[in-house]
Amino acid sequence: MQDTADREEMLTVEIWRGREDGALQTYRVPRRESQTVLDVVTWVQRNEEPALAYRFACRVGMCGSCAMQVNGKPRWTCRTHVSRVAENGLLRIEPLANLPRIKDLATDMAPFFEKWQGARGRHEPTRTRHEPMAPVSSESPARKAANAGIECINCAVCYAACDVVGWDENYLGPAALNRAWTLANDERDADKAGLLQAVSQGGGCHSCHSHGSCVEHCPVGLNPTAGIAGLKRMTLAALMKGEL
Amino acid sequence: MSQPLETLRTDILIIGSGGAGLMAALHALQADPDLDVTIAVKGLIGKCGCTRMVQGGYNVALAPGDSVERHFMDTIVGGKWLPRQDLAWKLVDKAVERIHELENELGCFFDRNPDGSLHQKAFAGQSFDRTVHKGDLTGIEIVNRLMEQIWARGVNKLEEHRAIELIPARDGSGIAGVLLVDMRTGQYRYVEAKAVLLASGGGPTMYLYHTPSGDKACDGMAMALRRNLPLRDMEMVQFHPTGLLAGTDTRMTGTVLEEGLRGAGGYLLNGAGERFMSRYHEHGERATRDIVSRSIYAEMRAGNTTPNGGIFIEMAHLGPENVSKKFKGMVERCADCGFDLAGGRVEVVPTAHYMMGGVEFELDCGTGLPGLFAAGEDCGGVHGANRLGGNGVANSTVFGGIAGESMAAYVQTGSAAWREADKTVLEAGISRAEHPFQARGGNLSDLRERLSHCMWDDVGILRTRDGLRAALTALGDFRAELHETGLADGDRAFNMTWHDWMNLESQIDVSAVIATAALGREDSRGAHFREDFPETGSLEETCFTRITQSDAGLALDMVPVDFSIVAPGQSLIEDEAGAPPSAAE
């Protein structure tokens, strides 16, 4: 009889290999106590599959580079503990959904950032570096609304989770619209009308059907659905007033 | 097989997309919107590198009662009189304009007070509360805002392009371009440029425990070294006292648990569960980073360790609910990895964090190679022996902006042109990168482990002559072994192990520079501690280390510091600089 206590506990890990065409390959990976999904991928690269493609940078949930589909759901892999996601010792790891694939677990994030720009996801200044900063109370309701959405790490987990993104390639997606919502509440921004124009076009905020998948999957706990609802109200109000 | 070399042409090529690289691109285009600007980066634009990982904030003298002079004195005293003073002055002076640019023009969303003014918090080693921040994720805010502006402008983006060689002109007149490899395909690209910015960042990732982003490998310094550019202050590697320790095969090991935990009253406990810091310093856990790191290391060396070989941090006595509220980000991060920071004990270890040293550069960010500019953590001289928390992101954005303006001006002068490349160097660069495809055998992971232990044990927190000499011998052996180590899979597309190989080459080269500088400095100050020379010695006779590579190997010079603004014993302010708080709340 073999002493099972001495036998190292193993995970069965299926990893997507290839580009758009490819297949899942199976690996056996030793289980560690404080192991994340990124650690599993790294172990496979270092020990089994040296040319395995995957992307990561910061290792701690700040850069938003390492998101993948884990057992069918989009997740940041650097902060997803294996024990929270393994099902009967099985992990299936695939490239993030709704983005073009480069190789294995790495996707091309350019469409995600292009849509960020499509939602006019950038500040339009009212002041220059030679002027004093705008006084903005930390207690003002608009400031609080913007603050609630500002800490997005652009990991594209919401973009992968969103079913509208999946069926409408023009849809800007939750992260881009969430950024627009923070700008809409930023009193320092110079071009509110332009912003609302950008987010109310086809593929903008009105395409969201409030399914809430973004909220459910956002690893940093943001609520893009609420921001998008805010943009819908704001654009309708602007339309009524003839500002759009 | 590798494909034929592709050539691209641009006016300004920027290597890196942290605070320095992105700011440089914006400033170059502000100076001249017609310039063709290209950013090449090892990861995705704005999503790799270390500026993004800044937790603390941005030091700048804005508040009534604070002053640029005070910020300067804190920087000089904190840097143990080693900084190049005109660079330190430029940092603190220009930071005032730069923070206004970040907030007003780029839209950074810095924390406010209820009265609408900017909130500035206390941070270690400074005599005034001057650190501007966005919660404890300041770097994400700064880099996200910079990145959005870059995406909106017509900047050429070479993402997942690794720089492998700085290519000089055939006639020796300056820089001609940079050899890169497209990591996604394995295609080599040579980018000709009139001006090049080295802004790839430092990052002491050759140490067993380290904080920087996983893409960092000191590539920029290694490339500069191969062009015989002098590096200064390379012995100055800052260790953060509390990195997470999560056990074997975990990427998260080494990442920072923030300073504020100690500042707020957190306990450090050895393996036996006893507080030990008071045995080392009167301020206990609140002593400065260097003192706490050395004390933890001494405790570890004495064998008083936790199961994974570190020590514990414990916050529970402050009330788990309070801790969860005050340090939400840290508590959640630990929880995601299975640790209870608020109510239990978490294993920690000192961790290599920042390189104060780097390429010598001028006030306009120029270097010894005409047309090559440098900014950010690739550079040495601003911080001296110790970097103040909050001066790092100020450094990268201040000098990145200056570099952008300098490059735009340089491109407009007659001396700037697309120079004809030195083909020998170009070809040598490609063969160097191709080498592992020809080599056979070896074990890269094992070699990386041994390098990281060597640097940790012998070139780390406590150093001796014998240890440093042993390390230099070992590093020579590692280099030879790397060249005997090949790749098991010949696919050039997104082959992470190929890049691990090239990372190791850069890391070994720069490790030798660190060890040589550490052997040269026979005193102890700031981040550098020699057990055989524990005294700081005379401040008036302070020298900095300068290391240059030649065919004969690494040459060390000890160069006297020019106290061009203030000399030891003098001050620009009335009261004491660099004083409390010793560990930030």
Describe it for me?
- The complex is a heterodimer of chains A (244) and B (585).
- With 244 residues, chain A is of the alpha+beta class.
- Chain A contains 10 helices and 7 strands.
- Chain A has 2 domains: 104 residues, Beta-grasp domain (Ubiquitin-like (UB roll), Roll); 131 residues, Alpha-helical ferredoxin (Fumarate Reductase Iron-sulfur Protein, Chain B, domain 2, Orthogonal Bundle), CATH 1.10.1060.
- In chain A, strands 2-1-5-3-4 form a 5-stranded mixed sheet. In chain A, strands 6-7 form a two-stranded antiparallel sheet.
- In chain A, helix 7 runs antiparallel to helix 8 and helix 8 crosses helix 10.
- Chain A starts with 9 loop residues before the first strand and ends with a helix.
- Chain B is of the alpha/beta class and 585 residues long.
- Among the domains of chain B are: 113 residues, Alpha-Beta Complex (Flavocytochrome C3, Chain A, domain 1); 99 residues, Methane Monooxygenase Hydroxylase, Chain G, domain 1.
- Chain B contains 14 helices and 19 strands.
- In chain B, helix 2 crosses helix 3.
- Chain B is globular.
- Chain B starts with 5 loop residues before the first strand and ends in a 25-residue tail after the last strand.
- At the A-B interface, helix 1, helix 3, helix 4 and helix 7 of A face helix 3, helix 4 and helix 14 of B.
